[in-house]
Amino acid sequence: FWSNVQKGPEDPILGVSIAFNKDTSPSKINLGVGAYRDENGKPYVLECVKKADKKIFEAGVDHEYAPIVGLASFNSLSVALALGEDCKAIKDKKIAVIQTLSGTGALRVAAEFLARFYPGKTAYVPNPTWGNHNTIFADSGVAVKSYAYYNPQNCGLNFDGMYNDINAAPNGSIILLHACAHNPTGVDPSIAQWKKISQLCKDKQHFVLFDFAYQGFASGSPEKDAEPVRLFVADGHQIGLCQSFAKNFGLYGQRIGAFSLITGTPEEALAVESQLKILVRPMYSNPPIFGARVVSTILSNKELTEQWRTEVKGMADRIIGMRESLVKYLKQHGSTKDWSHITNQIGMFCYTGLTPEQVDRLASEFHIYLTRNGRISIAGINSKNVEYLAKAIHAVTK
Ligand code: PMP
């Protein structure tokens, strides 16, 4: 049957982990991994999650199916966390929301919905973007193009390029925006720049889809990270919103996320919800319950929510601290290059500006592994390996 099936290429990030695992050096570092690691390089289970686990266990819950749209309490808490409890669209019941299989699932449901109900439109994603964006749209039958985003000259934002490309897209296009902690570059627009983009998207009647995979994880404040999304909503955009609770709650493998769509009226919201259900039913029927229960238990409990805020800030602060530490050691070991982009960028990832050849040298001479685009996951750095990393980066860049 399958002799015509050819072996496909491996995911480049997987390749980094395979090379890292094969290396027997005690000083090896894996900077490819897209998941938070603590000071000891270990995965981190949040204390608030452990407490929620216990509460759920003690409540003696059953394991019946969730409704197609997922757990109702999770859905409303999730949207309120992103848009703010006093968001008018929430009060006016104009938002259709469904629980999804983490951020990826939210994006996939969004793309499937757009293919069916907003046909013939092209989705514009930043260049570069999280690789899965391109594939998700393409596999859902939505054409994808990119808009300028990254400026390799200063490892920052190419705002003019971004603005011009969004302006040049046909009216009513789909514009995908990373709400905060852009992956892979770590480069985010300023609030003043977000305001200009919002106005432009209004003038162009674009449909704006936010990918919000890092709320709280970028700055340490869930409210601050939500500012761009809330700004667009306040400006009257009927945005689509894809949320993930993988990073900020450390619930990676639980696959917990949400897709919501702001509509014009409560009736429209109900109609959209009904169609989302029709889309989801033949894909996976209904979502898993455990992650939804964990997030819902935390966000409906004042004490646990406070603890979550402290813990997500702890993760964000550790990452910000490691950026500062890396720059400090680079200077200390004699690098005279401008590394300010390392601290200007935000979130788990940093686009270092290292060339593919320099990345190869880091692996072969120093046992340090990252993708060849020069992206490092700051989560892989800790106080024990940061100086070694700085020395190695200096050695390959001088
Ligand atoms: N969007 C972006 C920008 C991401 O970086 C990620 C995680 N790497 C996701 C979405 C989705 O991740 P998940 O499906 O694990 O929530």
Automatic annotation (TrEMBL):
**Cofactor dependence:** pyridoxal 5'-phosphate
Protein family (similarity comment): Belongs to the class-I pyridoxal-phosphate-dependent aminotransferase family.
**Further remark, if any?**
In eukaryotes there are cytoplasmic, mitochondrial and chloroplastic isozymes.
Q: Which PROSITE patterns match?
A: AA_TRANSFER_CLASS_1
- Which keywords does this Swiss-Prot/TrEMBL entry list? Aminotransferase, Pyridoxal phosphate, Transferase
Q: What taxonomic lineage is listed for the species of origin? A: Eukaryota, Amoebozoa, Evosea, Eumycetozoa, Dictyostelia
One GO MF term: pyridoxal phosphate binding
Q: Which residues cross the membrane?
A: none
Organism name: Tieghemostelium lacteum
- One of the Pfam families matching this protein, by short name: Aminotran_1_2
One GO biological process term is:
amino acid metabolic process
By what name is this protein known? Aspartate aminotransferase
